[in-house]
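Lab notebook, bench 4. We co-purified these components, and the gel suggests they stay together. Before we commit to crystallization screens, I want a quick structural picture of the whole thing.
Request: model the full complex, all chains together.
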Amino acid sequence: MNIMIAQSGGPTPAINATAVGIIELAGTLANIDKVYGALNGIEGVVHDHVIDLSERLTSDVELEMLFYTPASALGACRHRLPENIADDPLYPQIIQNLMAKEVELFIYIGGNDSMDTVKKLSQYCALKGIDSIRFIGAPKTIDNDLEGTDHCPGFGSAAKYIATTFAELEKDCTVYNQPSVTIVEVMGRNTGWLTASSALSRLNGGRGPDLIYLCELPFDQDKFLTDLTLLLTEGRPILVAVSEGVKKANGDYISVIEDNKLDAFGHQFISGSGKYLENLVRNRVGGKVRSIELNLMQRCAGHISSKTDLEESRQIGRYALQIGLTGETGKMVGIQRVSSHPYQIEFVVSDIDQIANAEKKVPLAWIMPSKSDVTCDMIDYLKPLIAGETALKYRNGIPDYISLH
Amino acid sequence: MNIMIAQSGGPTPAINATAVGIIELAGTLANIDKVYGALNGIEGVVHDHVIDLSERLTSDVELEMLFYTPASALGACRHRLPENIADDPLYPQIIQNLMAKEVELFIYIGGNDSMDTVKKLSQYCALKGIDSIRFIGAPKTIDNDLEGTDHCPGFGSAAKYIATTFAELEKDCTVYNQPSVTIVEVMGRNTGWLTASSALSRLNGGRGPDLIYLCELPFDQDKFLTDLTLLLTEGRPILVAVSEGVKKANGDYISVIEDNKLDAFGHQFISGSGKYLENLVRNRVGGKVRSIELNLMQRCAGHISSKTDLEESRQIGRYALQIGLTGETGKMVGIQRVSSHPYQIEFVVSDIDQIANAEKKVPLAWIMPSKSDVTCDMIDYLKPLIAGETALKYRNGIPDYISLH
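Here is the predicted assembly.
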C-alpha cells in the first residue's frame, strides 16, 4: 500500500518534524511501499502535484535536516473544501487521484481548516461506501487553539521564541535608567496562548512583562491607562505584551480606527493592536513609547525550536500512521497530559467532528483577577512545552535547512 | 591601581563579552586591584553610581553568563559631554570622582558618542596636565559604522540574526505558491551594513532577498516599482530587504509623509521605510503585501550570537586593557583584517580623533550596478563575521542571562 502526506495552514517550526515521524516509521514497515507528499496541501491532490518522498529523501542526514526546517516543506494552501459533500465534483476528483496512486491512507498535518478537510473527505467516503482510503489529521498550529489535544505541535517552539525574545527585549529596554513604554504585539486573533507565553521570560529571574493582555477578555482601555500611569511613577522601563486580537467590550478589534479616517494613500488606517496602543499612550500619557510586532518571526524561528515540541511532533506523526494503519478514519491524533510534575504525556485519538471548527481558548481561571497577567497554573501548563534545545546543524553560520521541491 | 569600565550606546549581544575580556585579564594581573563598573555610562561616573565588579562577579560561571548576556549589563546613557572642555565644571567633577576611586584607566565600550566622550576626557587631561588617568575606547555597535576597525564587535551577531531570520522568513513566505510581497525593514539610519547581511541567507542554497536596498544610494521609487512588477510576473513570493534609513535623492527619508497628513491622533503620520514601501506597493501594484520590522530583536538576540563576534569582542577587551596599561590614552582599539581566506585578524590602535564623529559607509563598489543587491566582495567581507555558534547555556527552556545591578 502507499500513503500520502500533506501539510497546510500557517507555518510552524515543527510541522516538518511530524512528517519526518511518519516517513521514518513508514520506512520500517514492510507493508508500506511509497510515501507520497502532496504539494500545497489538498490542492496538490486536486491538481496531482505530488512528489515521491521515499525517492526524494534518501538519507538520514536529509531527514534530520527536514526535522529542523521550519514551515511546511511541502507547501501549504488556504483551501476550504465545498460544503456540498454529496454532489460537488471536487470530492470524486480527489478520491480518484488518490486511488490512481494506490493511496490507502492520507495524513493531513495542519490546523483547523485542515481538520475540516479530513472531516469532509472521511464523510464523503462514508457516504459513498468507499473504505479503501482512510483520512487522519495530525495537529499543528502555533496558536494552540485546537480541541482534542492538550497542546498543539508547533506551539511549544513559538512559545520558546516568545519567552526568549521577551527575556532579551527586557535586557534591551532596561539599559537606560528612565521611564519608557515598550508594547509588544504577539500573534493570536482569538486566543491568548502565545501572548501568555511572554510570562515564561520570568523563569530565570527576569521581571517579565509588566502588563499582559490576552484576547479572551475585553480590553479595558481606561484601566490600561490607569495601570500604566501608576507603573510609570516607578521611573523605569515598562514592558507590555498584547495579543494581536484584543477586542473592545462590543467585540470589535481595538486596532481598527473607528471613524474611518484615511491614511496618506486613501486607505482606512488599520494598525495592529501594538501600534494602536503605542499611539494611545503617546496621546494620553506621553513620554517615550514604542511598539514591536513579533510578526512572522514567531512562527518560523526554527533556530530556537523547543526540543520537547519537535520530539512530540515527530512522535505524533508516528502515532498518526499507526492509527491510520489500524483502519481508523476521520480521526485526529492528539496529546493528553498525564502529569505536569513530572511532565508526562500520552497520545490519544478524537473524532474529527469534535475538533474541526472548534476553538480552544485560554481558561479564564488562568488569567489573574487584575486581567493583566497570568496565573501560576498557566505557567505550570506552559513551562514543560518549551523545555530543551535542539541539535539543529549550522553551515556557513546559518541553519542548514532543506528544500523538498 | 584600579580601573573602571563603562558601556554606552544602543544594545548589542557582544558588549558584555568585551567587559568580560577586560575583567578576566585584570584578574590575572597583580598590579590591578579593583575593576569598577560605572552604571549607565559616563553618567555613572558623574553621579558616582559605580559597582565593584571584582566583588560582584566572583565565579567563572557568572563571568560566562555575562559573556553571553545581550545589552549593556552596566546600563547605558545618551549623554554627550559639553563642547567647552576648558571650562565646563563637569570635567573636573568626572576626574575628581575617578581619582577618588584611584582609577588610573577608564575603558569606555561603546559607539560613536562614547568615542567622543573618550576624546574629550583625554583632551581635558592633556589640557590640564593630568597624566594619572588614561582613557581608552573599545568599539561596539551593531551598525558597523565606526572608522578605525575592519568591523565592530556586536555587528557579527546582529548580522547572524539577520541572515538566519531572512533564511527562515523565506521558508515562511514560500509555503503558498502564489505571488506576494514581503518587505523587511532592517536597522541602519545612515549605513547599510546590516541590510546587506540579509544576503547571507543565501549561503546554504536559499534564494535570499529578491531586492536589497541600502541607504548609501538614493532610493529610486520608480525603478523599485518597475523591478518589483517584473519579478511578480514570475508568480512567486518576493522578499525585499530595505534599510530603515533609505532616502530620496534630495536626502529626505522616504518614510516621512511629505504633505503633513495627520493620523487619527492628530500626529504627523511617520511610518518606517518598510511600512512606507508596503503602502506604496499596495497602492501602485496591488496584491498581497506586508512589511516586517526586525526592530529591537536584531540588536539583542543573544541566543543567536556569532561565536566569532563574541570571541573577538572578548579579545578586544583584553587588548584595550593591555594598551591602556602601556600608558596610551585617547585611543580606540580596533580590528584589522589580515585576510578573508582564511579569515585572520589582528588588533590595532587608532587615535580617537580619527574615529569620533566619523561614519564608515558601505563602499559603493560593493553594491551591484542594479542598485538592488550586493556584490561577492560584500559577501566575502561579511561571511566570516557570522561564523560559529556559541555555547550559551539554557535553564528552564530560556537562555540563562545575568543581571549585574
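The radius of gyration of chain B is 23 Å. Worth comparing against the SEC data before the next meeting. The CA atoms of residues 191 and 216 of chain B lie 6 Å apart.
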